[in-house]
Amino acid sequence: MKKIFVGCMSVFLLYGYHVYAQKNTLQASVVSRPQGGVNSFYTSNRSPLQPLSLIKLPVGTIRPQGWILKYLQLQRDGLTGQLGEISAWLDKKNNAWFSGNGKGDHGWEEVPYWLKGYGDLGYILKDKKMINETRSWLEKVFESQRADGYFGPGEVTRNQQNQIIKVPDLWPNMLMLWCLQSYYEYNADPRVIPFMTKYFKWQSTVPDSLLLRTYWENSRGGDNLYSIYWLYDHTGEKWLLNVADKIYRNTANWSQDDNLPNWHNVNVAQCFREPATYFMQNKDSNSLEATYKDFYLIRSLYGQVPGGMFGADENARKGYSDPRQAVETCGMVEQMSSDEILTGITGDPMWADNCEDVAFNTYPAAVMPDFRGLRYLTAPNMVISDSKNHSPGIQNAGPFLTMNPFSSRCCQHNHSQGWPYYEEHLWMATPDNGIAALLYNSSEVTVKVGNRTGHTVTLKQSTHYPFDEHIKIEVSTSSSVRFPLYLRVPGWCTAASVRINGKVVDVNAKAGSYIRLENTWKQGDVIELTLPMKVELQVWAQNKNSVSVNYGALTFSLKINEYYKKMNSKESAIGDSKWQASADQTKWPAYEIYPESMWNYGLYLTKQPVAQQFEIIKRPWPSNDFPFTQDAVPLIIEAKGKMIPDWTIDQYGLCGVLPQSPVTVATKEKEIELIPMGAARLRISAFPVVR
C-alpha cells in the first residue's frame, strides 16, 4: 500500500532537478507537483486559504474530441439528455424546483443531481437546447430566493421573535449551488454571486443545534464547504470563512482514526475529501492526512479489487469484501469528482491515477453502450446481470443488477456528472501561469498563459489513450510565448519519454510525477509524450491471492459472451423509481445480461517472465470512436487459463466467492481472451490462480 502523504508543507513544496537546457530556451525538469500559488488569469484560492497546486478552468474552455467527445454525445442523446422526458422527478408540473416558490412535489436531490451534469454537458457541447433548458430551471431557482436568503423547496420555520426554530434538509441546495457555480463559470451571470452571498448570510444565522442535523446533509456538508470557498475566491469576503468553520464543525467527522462516520458507498466516495477541503482553511496537515487515511482505509478493508473502487453495495459490511461485491454508479461518479478536486488541492498525481482507474475500468460497464440505461450496482466479478433479488449476497433487496433507464432515483439522475466533470479536468491551469495536461484524452484547450499581461494559446491533444501510449500536443499561437507545460506521468509508468519537434528531451521522468517543460513556444511546435505500457500483475493478497491483469491504465477482464434480454423497464424498475405517463417504453427498454460462455476460469501462470505469458493483440481503432464494447475494443490480451469446476453460481444467484489461490484443478489448459474491463458488462476481473 502506498504510504500516506503527510505534512502540510511537504505536500506543496516543488522539488525537481534541471536536466536539459539549450540556449536558455527549454528548461525541462521532473517535479512532484506544481508549486501552489495564484494564477494570474484563472480564479485561484485567495489568502488566507492554502494555495492550490492546480486550478480548474471554466467549463467550456476545453473542447472534447476523439472517444470522449463520442461518449459525451451518447450521453446527450441518451439518458442524460433525454431524462427530462421520462423521469417523473423532472416533470415540471407541480415541481417544487420549478414552481419558483419552493412549493410542490419532487423537491429533493433528483433535479439538482441531474442538472449539475446536464448543464455542464450542454456548456461543453455548446448545445443551445440544453443550455436553454438549464437556464429555465435556474431562473426558477433565482426566483425562489426569499427575503432571508433561503432558496428552493422547504420552509424555514421561525417563532414570534423571528428566530429560526426549524430548518429544511440543506443537502439538495448543496447540489444546486454547484449548478449555479458552473452557470457562472460559463456566462458570468451577475445574479449568481449576490444570490450565493445572501444564502450563506442566511446559513450564518442558523443555530448550530439546527444546522446539518439529518443524515444526508450531515454526511455531505463538505459539498457546502466547497461552495463557500468558491464564493470566497470570487469575492474575498472574510465572513465567509466563519461560515465555513460553522459548516465544518456541524458536518460528520470524517477525520476519525481508523473509522468512518458511516459506510454508505456514495457517502464514502464523496465525503472522504471533506477534511482535505477544510485543510485549505485550517492548513493543518492532520486534516489533509485524514483524507488519505479514509481513502486507504476503505480500500484496505473492502477495496482489494481492481477498478479503483471498493465493494460496498449500499453499505460496506464485515465479511463481504469479495470482488463480487458491487458499488453504486453514484459512488463511481462521486469518486471521480473527489479525485479531480483533490488533484487541484494537492497536485498529487495519485488522485488523477485513481480517477482514470474508475473512469476507464469501472464506470463504462455500468451503463449501456448507447447510454440509454444504467445499472445500479456493478462489481469487478459479475457474471449475471438480471432482475432477481440477490440479497443478502448483495445488501440491496430488489432488482438492482438490471440495466434499466429507471434503475433508481439517485443513480438515474446523478450519473450525469461523471463524464462532463472528467472532461473539465483534462487540462488545468498552474500557479506559474502555465498549463497542465492532467487526464489524457483528445481535446483542444484555449488558455491564457505567460506573464501577467497574458497571451492566448491553443493546445491540441491527439491520442487514443488509454488504449495507446502515444500523446501528441500541438501548439497554436499568434506569436512566441514563454510558459511552462506540465505533463503528468502516471504512477504505473516507469519510462516516460518526450520529444519536442522530433528531438528527444533528456529528462528522467519518474512514475507518479510531472514533466515540466518551460519553453518559449511558437506556432507549430509539437510535443510528443510516450507512456510505455506493459503487462503487469496485481496480486490481491487480502482477497484469496487473486490476480488482476493490467496494461497501462487499463485492467483486463475475461471475455464472456453476453446475451442481452430485453425487458419492460417499468416492470423491473426499483422501488420508488417513477416515470412520466408519456414515457415511451419502446425507446427505453431495460435489459438483463446473461453469459453465453463459461466464466469460471482461473489464470494459469508459470515461472516465466510476465511478458512472455501474455500476448497483446492490437486491432484497428473503431470507426465510431467508441472503444467500450466487446466487438470494438482495440486491445485484446491472450492468456492461459483452466476451468475451476467447483467455482459456480451460488445460492444467491451470484458469482461464487473466490477460491483460495493457488487452486489445483484437473482441467486442461486453454487459451482465454481478455478484454478491457470497461468494455465487459459481464466480467471476471480478479482471477484465481490455477495450477
In short:
By secondary structure, the chain is an alpha+beta fold.
Kindly list the characteristics that best describe this protein.
eight-stranded mixed β-sheet, 691 residues, alpha+beta, disordered N terminus, seven-stranded antiparallel β-sheet, globular
Report the C-alpha radius of gyration, rounded. Answer: 25 Å
Distance between the termini: 27 Å
**Major sheet attributes:** 8 strands, mixed
Broad structural category:
alpha+beta
Annotation, overall tally of beta strands: 29
**Mean pLDDT across every amino acid position:** 94
**Fraction in beta strands:** 15-25%
Q: How would you explain this protein's 3D organization?
A:
It is a single chain. The protein is of the alpha+beta class and 691 residues long. Helices cover 29% and strands 21% of the residues. The strands form seven sheets. Strands 20, 21, 22, 25, 26, 27, 28 and 29 form an eight-stranded mixed β-sheet that branches. β10 and β11 form a beta hairpin. α9 (221-235) runs parallel beside α12 (274-282). It starts with 7 loop residues before the first helix and ends with a strand. Mean pLDDT is 94; it is low at 1-23.
SSE layout:
Layout lengths: L7 H5 L5 E5 L3 E6 L30 E3 L1 H12 L1 H4 L27 H16 L2 H17 L12 E2 L5 E3 L4 H17 L4 H14 L9 H5 L1 H15 L3 H12 L14 H7 L2 H9 L2 H18 L24 E2 H18 L2 H14 L11 E2 L1 E2 L24 E2 L4 H6 L3 H7 L2 E3 L5 E3 L5 E7 L5 E9 L6 E8 L3 E9 L7 E4 L2 E3 L7 E9 L4 E5 L4 E6 L5 E6 L2 E5 L3 E6 L22 E6 L5 E4 L5 H4 L1 E4 L16 E9 L26 E7 L12 E2 L1
Parallel strand pairs: 11-15, 25-29
Antiparallel strand pairs: 1-2, 2-18, 3-12, 4-5, 6-8, 7-9, 10-11, 12-13, 13-14, 14-19, 15-18, 16-17, 16-19, 20-21, 21-22, 22-28, 23-24, 25-27, 26-27, 27-28
